[in-house]
Amino acid sequence: MLQNxxxxxxxxxxxxxxxxxxxxxxxxxxLGLGFLRxxxxxxxxxxxxxxxxxxxxxxxxPPTYTAQVKVLFGNPxxxxxxxxxxxxxxxxxxxxLESQIQILKSSAIATSVIDQLKLADDPDFKNSGWSLxxxxxxxxxWLGSRPPDRKVNSPDPLVAEFDRRLSAVRLGYSTVIEIxxxxxxxxxxxxxxxxIANAYINDQLNAKFDASRTATAWLQDRLRELGQQALTxxxxxxxxxSQNNIVAVGGKLMDEEQVAELNSRMVAARAQTSxxxxxxxxxxxxxxxxSTDSASIGSLDASGxxxxxxxxxxxxRQQYLENARRxxxxxxxxxxxxxxxxxxxxxxxxxxxSILDEVRRLAETSRSDFEVYKQRQQEIExxxxxxxxxxxxxxxxxxxxxxxxxxxxxxxxxxxxxLQRYMGSVQQESFPISEARVISPATxxxxxxxxxxxxxxxxxxxxxxxxGTALGFFRDLMDRTFxxxxxxxxxxxxxxxxLVPLLRNPERKKLSRRAAVQDDKEFGQKTLSRxxxxxxxxxxxxxxxxxxxxxxxxxxxxxxxTKTSHKIVGITSAxxxxxxxxxxxxxxxxxxxxxxxxxxxxxxxRNPSLSANLAPNATTGIIDVLSGARSLEETVWRDxxxxxxxxxxxxxxxLFHTSEILSAAQTRKLFDxxxxxxxxxxxxxxxxAPIVDVRATTPLIDCFIxxxxxxxxxxxxxxxxxxxxxxxxxxLVGTVLNKTDMKAMKRYDNYHNDYYNxxxxxxxxxxxxx
Length: 770
Hints:
Layout: H1 2-12, H2 14-23, H3 25-60, E1 65-73, H4 79-84, H5 94-104, H6 107-117, H7 123-126, H8 132-145, H9 157-165, E2 166-170, E3 176-183, H10 186-212, H11 217-243, E4 248-249, E5 252-253, H12 254-289, H13 305-308, H14 311-334, H15 339-429, E6 436-440, H16 453-478, H17 485-492, E7 496-501, H18 513-523, H19 537-540, H20 545-558, E8 567-573, H21 580-593, E9 598-602, H22 609-614, H23 622-627, H24 632-635, E10 637-639, E11 644-647, H25 658-662, H26 665-677, E12 680-684, H27 693-696, E13 703-709, H28 715-723, H29 726-730, E14 732-740, H30 742-745, H31 750-756
Parallel strand pairs: 7-14, 8-12, 8-13, 9-11, 9-12, 13-14
Antiparallel strand pairs: 1-3, 1-6, 2-3, 4-5, 10-11
């Protein structure tokens, strides 16, 4: 059998291989276009990342830039500032400008900029061959162990390199000084140049501030006195609050907050008490309305949401209703005085007594809750009364506290007003407007010599495309689901019999429930239901792609090398919800529509979804036939339009030994009878992977059809399922790729997409099984 399967795989793959050889370059182009359609987003994303990396490299590559900043010396001051100045003004001459240039190049300015911008940690400065340890040590010595005005005898390497990159010249005969600095980055060069100018201006301001500090020293004593007075007044306010237990939170007194909180709690407690009392009254009403010796359940289960949510009452009620149903049934069959009927009535009275006891227990629980809530309400009311009394006492002391706070605020306001005058005087005397100002700040240079921008960007784009293509190939390799017939044939060594398209709009093909009920009335109670349109799409749309794909399955069964005159075909899948039941129903419909005698047998005993859709009202099924409770003719349902027969699997209780049922001798006799009666027997089987029922049916089934869901079922899952069921694998005719998205198929297989897009033979909309 395996050899025959391999032969069918070879025959089915001859045409695509020949077309591939004839296509040559065209086939390769189609494959490439399909790959691009699938992975173009990954390629674009990777290319964008590579391009971004190239831009980042261009940003961090070490070029060389020089930035200039222009400083005007001799900035004129306002007249009122000159009048209040305590320092003498000196005229500007060449010697003074040269002195300012030397200040710009001094170690003090250099060290200030190095410390401010942390140039010791800058990679551009590290690459100059400096010793970071010696630089840090020199800075610490200059800032800590040595006074600021002490001259360093040995030049610092970092300061020397800083001085080498710095330039300061006078422009012509003007009082403008141009400061230039070179660095590896344009922004860094401009930043350091501007920092040098700012450090120079700040140095001037600091010098003038030290000179004018003495002039404002007398104001500090007055500020200190006012501050002490304000602090004393504020301490008096705090002491009064402590003596009278006045606590404020968020601008409100603590007593007021406590009263508000207790009021909210009291309202909630009263609501709980009222609710508990109402619940207790409901239970007592129910108990008073139902006597102990009554035989009827009465209103015991209608006592409110508490009783309805009680699992004990619900369980007892279900038992009572079930015994009542059985009492009616047995009374009709055996008589009202039969022992079994009397026992049922006794049990019903016992169940009713148990329900009544449970309602009493709920009433006692409600009474206990009512007492607890009532006691809690009384306690909160006592606390509320005490809090109101304390709040009245606090309000009387609040007036004195407000008076003390007013005095403290007055002292503090006077202190702040005097402080503002002092700060204004300090700002005026310290001359915040320096003699120098920046008239042209440094900007980043626009030109650089390296790296080559165009070359780096081109390499980034080409590299991103190559990396994105490799990523796309990797994604294709990691896709372990089936999407083409070639993948199934290569992985499972089984022919792909058909690609069943996906049902896009199954609701349009459904019959209305009123029409289904009308059919039942016309043809009898054993008529198959047509309320689920997807199970009848093959006959409802005979020229659709879906119907043509089902015909391919039927043809493969007819051409099966076993050549049996009466074929029993099993439809299974590796996992649930892959559409095997829909395929089985559609295949049987097409065969029956052609005039053959066909019956569908639902052998998915644990989950009979086919029976739920075709015979939802069935109360008997294959289990009753096997047990002898019903005959085959009494159990079979039929479709009057196609003469299709259906043997359902009515699910009434969980079955734990379904594999033993399917492998029993009674099951073999039943299938022998079906083989003799019908031309085709289509069997809806359980999935392979979750349970072992399919393996037990191999003596009954002539051949199997494996349904695989497109783009969902993983390769390793199906391979493992077939590996654990070798007898099923040997009897497989082939596979069906179900729920195929035909629009997405052109990304993977242009041959099948062009074949299914032929509108001359498939004129109706795309449909399929889900």
